[in-house]
Fold this protein.
Amino acid sequence: MQRPSDYQSFNQRLQGCATLIERRLDEWLTAPEKGEAVPGRLNEAMRYAVLGGGKRLRPFLVLESARLCCLPDEAALNVGAALECIHCYSLVHDDLPAMDDDDLRRGRPTVHKAFDEATAILAGDALLTLAFEILADPETHPDPGVRSALSLELARSAGRAGMAGGQMLDFRAPGANLSETEILRLQSMKTGSLICFACEAGAILACAETARRNALVAYGGALGLAFQLADDLLDAEGDAALVGKAVAKDHGAGKATLVSLIGADAARTRLSQLEAQACDALAPFGDAAATLIAAAHFVANRKH
Ligand code: GRG
C-alpha cells in the first residue's frame, strides 16, 4: 500500500479520492439492478444533486482514516459514497425555500430550481435512504456487526442529535443571542457530526483498537468545528463566484456565528487553534498521519 508521503501533494490525493468516489456514486445511481424501478425524474434529480461537483471532503476523510488503519481505498469506497449521499441530501434540503432558500449551489442552480420543490424533497429523501442501503450491502463489509456499527454511527451523526438536530437549533437561533458554548454545540451538531463520522469510519471499518478510534474522533471533532468556522469566515468575507453559492447570508439572516460574536480576527485565531488541536490528536499515528494533517490545513485555509 502507498504511504501518504508517496503522494506528490494533498490536492492530488483529494482529487484522486473524488474521482474514485464519483465513479462509485455513478454506479450506485445507475446500476440496472438498483435503478430499474426508479422513476426517471427522481433518478435524474438524485444524479444532479450528487454528481455536480463538490470537494468530496467527507469521502476523502473516510478513505484517509481507513488508510491510516491500514485499509486500501477500495475497502472504504462504499462508506464514502454513503456519506456523500447524506451530505448531498442535506444540501438539497438546506437550499429549499423553507430553509435557506438558495438559488445557487456548487456554481449551478439548486435542485429545486433545476427541477421543482417536490422533486428536490423526494431526491433528498431518497439519497438519505440510499445511504443506509449502501451501508447495509454485504459488499460494504463482510461482517454484519461492522455494517451495523457503521449504520448506527451514521444515523446518530445525521439525525436528531446530529446534523438534523443542529439544523433545528440553527433555525431557532436568529435573534436568540447564543453564547459561544451554544454556538459551538450547534455547529458541532449541524456540520461537525458528519465530518466526525467520516474520520471515525475508517477505524470502524478496520475494527481498530479504541485508542486509535478515539484519536480519529478527537481529530474529527476539532476538524468539524474548524470547517464550520472557515465557512462562517467565507460567508462574511468570501467571494460568491469562488465559493459557488451566495455569501453574506448569515449576517442578513441574523444567524449566530462565532464570527458575529467575537469578530473575524478573533475567529481566525480560533481557527488556527482548532487546526493545531486537530493535528495534535493524530500524534498516536506519527508520520503516517501526514495527509490528514494536510487536510486540517486545507480546511482551515480553504477559499471555497
Ligand atoms: C437539511 C437536515 C438538513 C441539514 C442541513 C449541512 C447543513 C445542514 C446545511 C448546509 C448549510 C451550510 C452551507 C453549512 C455550512 C457547512 C457546509 C455543510 C458547507 C458545504 O459543505 P462543502 O463545502 O460542500 O463540503 P461541497 O459542495 O464541497 O460538497
In short: The chain has a mean pLDDT of 91. The longest helix spans residues 210-237. Strands lie at 104-105, 108-109. The radius of gyration is 18 Å.
